[in-house]
Amino acid sequence: MGMPQVESVFRILADKNRTRMVKLLGENELTVGELERSLGLSQSATSQHLKLLNDAGLVVCRKHGNFRIYSLRKEALQKAMRYFDSLWDEGLNKMKTKLEHGKG
Amino acid sequence: MGMPQVESVFRILADKNRTRMVKLLGENELTVGELERSLGLSQSATSQHLKLLNDAGLVVCRKHGNFRIYSLRKEALQKAMRYFDSLWDEGLNKMKTKLEHGKG
DNA sequence: TATTAATATTAGATATTTTTAATATAATGA
DNA sequence: TCATTATATTAAAAATATCTAATATTAATA
């Protein structure tokens, strides 16, 4: 129940540009260049943010020719959310875990 | 749907000492001194972290003599969590909102 | 192979956060 | 009132995070 990896999720989501990335990637998978243009960030900054998201296990990428297509790992966010819940309400957390299992 | 206040919740929880505080306060309300000792932080650092938690609306405090007793505002965390969900899954978020209403 | 396009990596500059140290405030009790 | 205890506030130092600029890598294409 240590969940060391999950702590870092909050650090990742603490940055506004990264929450915007997560939001965009929640809708569609996107290339680095598409994210760069959507967010108005430099190429370098975009790559660096993606690296953090990737290291935290929140995204994966696959190659397509010269491009890298990033997509969100929703299960990682789900896991982080469950830990988040457990910080303040163990009981509700259990109910939701059940619900999620019933669904997925 | 802007939820500007909620963005800051991630910034608050990005710090390990503050997540520990949230966890401790999820179990019991505590004085500054108790938190200080539990966390092994200085008095000043403890107060400053509490100020951030308080400004984000995650805790409240009441006076008792010379002491200040802090307690967690679970509804604020609940609200933040719902926003968190919406970043990646609108549908599941709606199900959970319903569940929470049914419960609380 | 040389060139271009897309992305990654690195180093250093800048900005932000966190801690420490000192001081201030507020309540209590002698 | 004076001293003490609990906490808050402030400024500066220390630690981290983020951005920019330069360079590297990788794949496609001429």
What are the SSEs and their pairings?
Two copies of one chain form a homodimer.
Chain A: H1 4-13, H2 16-27, E1 30-31, H3 32-39, H4 43-55, E2 59-64, E3 67-72, H5 74-88, H6 90-103
Helix pairs in contact in A: 1-5, 3-4, 5-6
Chain A binds a DNA duplex (30 and 30 nucleotides) through α4.
Observed structural traits:
homodimer; 104 residues; alpha+beta; Arc Repressor Mutant, subunit A; three-stranded antiparallel beta sheet; 6 helices; 3 strands; DNA-binding
How many separate helices of chain A? 6
**What is the strand content of chain A?**
5-15%
Mean pLDDT figure of chain A: 84
Low-confidence stretches of chain A: none
Instruction: Give the structural class of chain A.
Output: alpha+beta
Give the CA-based shape of chain A: elongated
CATH architecture of the domain at 4-73 in chain A, by name, is Orthogonal Bundle
Overview of the molecule:
2 copies of one chain form a homodimer. Chain A is an alpha+beta fold and 104 residues long. Chain A has a domain at 4-73: Winged helix-like DNA-binding domain superfamily/Winged helix DNA-binding domain (Arc Repressor Mutant, subunit A, Orthogonal Bundle), CATH 1.10.10.10. Helices cover 69% and strands 13% of the residues of chain A. Chain A is built from 6 helices and 3 strands. A 3-stranded antiparallel sheet of chain A has the order 1-3-2. The longest helix of chain A is centred in the last third of the chain and has 15 residues, at 74-88. The two termini of chain A are 22 Å apart. The mean pLDDT of chain A is 84. Chain A binds chain B through residues 7, 10-11, 13-14, 16, 19, 22-23, 26, 72, 74, 77, 81, 84-85, 87-89, 92, 95-96, 99-100, 103, and chain B through 7, 10-11, 13-14, 16, 19, 22-23, 26, 72, 74, 77-78, 81, 84-85, 87-89, 92, 95-96, 99-100, 103. Chain A binds a DNA duplex (30 and 30 nucleotides) through helix 4.
